[in-house]
User: Fold these one by one.
Assistant:
Number 1:
Amino acid sequence: MLLLTLESSCDETAAAVVRDGRQVLSNLIASQVDLHAVYGGVVPELASRRHLEVINPLVEEALSTAGVTQEDLDGIVVTRGPGLVGALLVGLSFAKAYAYALNIPLIGVHHIEGHILAIQLEEKVEYPFLAVAVSGGHTHLYRVDEIGRYHLLGRTVDDAAGEAFDKVAKMMGLGYPGGPIIDKLASVGDDGGIVFPRPMLKKNNFDFSFSGVKTAVLNYLQRLESAPDEILTSQIACAFQTAVIDVISQKAMRAAEAEDLNRIVVAGGVACNSGLRKKFAKLAVATGTKVFFPSPILCADNAAMLAVAGDYYLSQGLSSDLDLNAVSNWPLEQVHS
Ligand code: KG4
Ligand code: ZN
């Protein structure tokens, strides 16, 4: 089955062509980072307008890179939510028009379902596994029993990890998006003895909280008599990143143990973080747990990741009607309720 997949939930327009839910023939991403960077965050209206501008040529390029034509397609997969509703609607409307014109089925997929299953494009991970979804909007732990069956074990009660990275970078005047910038700074030095709190780590549940770490960084910055120099900046970045990584990795390992799962999949934009990847690799060796990270291109927002679920559902005979609407708020555990 040859699928065109489309993602437009936030600030990347993405189109991919994937065969049989496995073989990625093209995976193109038109990033809007430069457009939003001047505002220090995503401006929804601008995001929708840019999606509209680029989606047509991007799809054409995705098809030609894959060496296929519209007529070769067997179905269209699109992110239905969660995300910015105006942004989602661009991808969704495009997908519906395409499916209607080509008379092929359409399926709307959950963005986080895409992230969690992206790893299956690169290696076969047996079910069940623990999924650690860490992105700009999510820091959630799920037990994944099979495609479509997700059980929420814990989640952030305030900011998502990526959101905390972005906000801390913004308050330090480092730019947007903050995750990759802090990651780079953190990797050049050490924390210089700075320690930020590890919220909820001692709590006997699998929930997270990152707003306290963010406030601790703000308080630290406010106590300084002058702007931090290069060395102190990287130490603060490193101390912040280490606190976030500690909480995510330790809670994930505990959840895996409690659920008797010896496979962990880490997914979403924050899974690009080099410190997080190293920490999980160490814990994997220490505990005998297998930890899987998709390649960075499949961690950040992309369209190929939607093909795993899309292919599965379409091959089960499931598809969406052409009156399918976008859902900005959509808990993953409710995908099929
Ligand atoms: O999955 P994603 O691309 O979009 C959402 O679904 O939200 O995740 C974006 C988030 C941003 O907050 C970004 O700062 C963060 O992922 N991110 C990182 C890194 N690369 C991207 N966070 C930490 N370290 C990174 N290397
Ligand atoms: Zn995402």
Number 2:
Amino acid sequence: MASPLKSLVDDDNRYQTSFQLFLERSSEHQCMQDFIHNKLPDILASIGDGKSHLNVIGVGSGAGGIDLEMLTKLHMKHPGVTVDNEVVEPSSQQLHNYKVLVSQKPGLDYIKFTWNKMTASEFEEQWKLKKMTKKADFIHMIQMLYYVKDPEATINFFQSVLDKNGKLLIILVSGESGWGKLWRTYRSQLCNTEISQCITTGDIKSFLDSKGVSYQSYELLSQMDITECFTEGDENGELLLDFLTEVLHFSKSASPELKAGVMELLRHPDCSVESDGKVIFNNNLGVIVIDQPS
Ligand code: SAH
């Protein structure tokens, strides 16, 4: 049964505000930056097969900060190579932020940006309609597969677009994170089954294993300070709660039972640790890299 609660993603303004606050309260981007710095260069070393031009697709790029860091590593591993970078992002605000970032950052002349203000499935539809034969060397979908109707179909499509030696990078919350526990407990009540899925890299691994697809995986340690959620009426706390539950105005619209259950679970040792008066939620991420065999 579909949940009667409204999904946070239905309100792009509130979604973006709560996402921004989440970034400030968590080590989300720091742990991704560590990964990009320490692991990604080796992952990217083998793509492209010696070509002088690489095709990259970023799906759900947001404001582009993480994308540009990855592109910088790509450039370091493949100097002298030009890059065609397709950005797939439905939020006009985020697309605008990304363009501003690009305009402010020098040294990106080797990249041609193509802006696709659309969802992953609209991009897929267009790609098929135009009978595109172009292949991609590096595709990434970072923290976005929650928002597609059928994550497995989305992975299948983008995998089919990979060139020889190409790589598809997926980052989602880890099955072992507080998110995983929260969603396993309240999936049927919180998750809008149409556009917001409670999926973790644990679910993606099961799906890939069942299809016999091989991949590499990594766990990234990350934390989120959710202390403000426990101060009744705190505006930041409410934004973070919306983000955690993916429910629009969670504390006003959820039943008292659901709210009490979620609040209790959020500070339970399965999800968080408490120290120095702070409640620190386990925000560990999982990374999956799928190779296109050569
Ligand atoms: N990758 C960025 C942003 C993650 S937030 C980062 O890690 O910082 C998720 C992003 O996915 C948002 O920018 C949102 O607008 C976008 N998004 C939402 N639904 C989408 C869909 N159906 N297809 C592609 N992107 C989507």
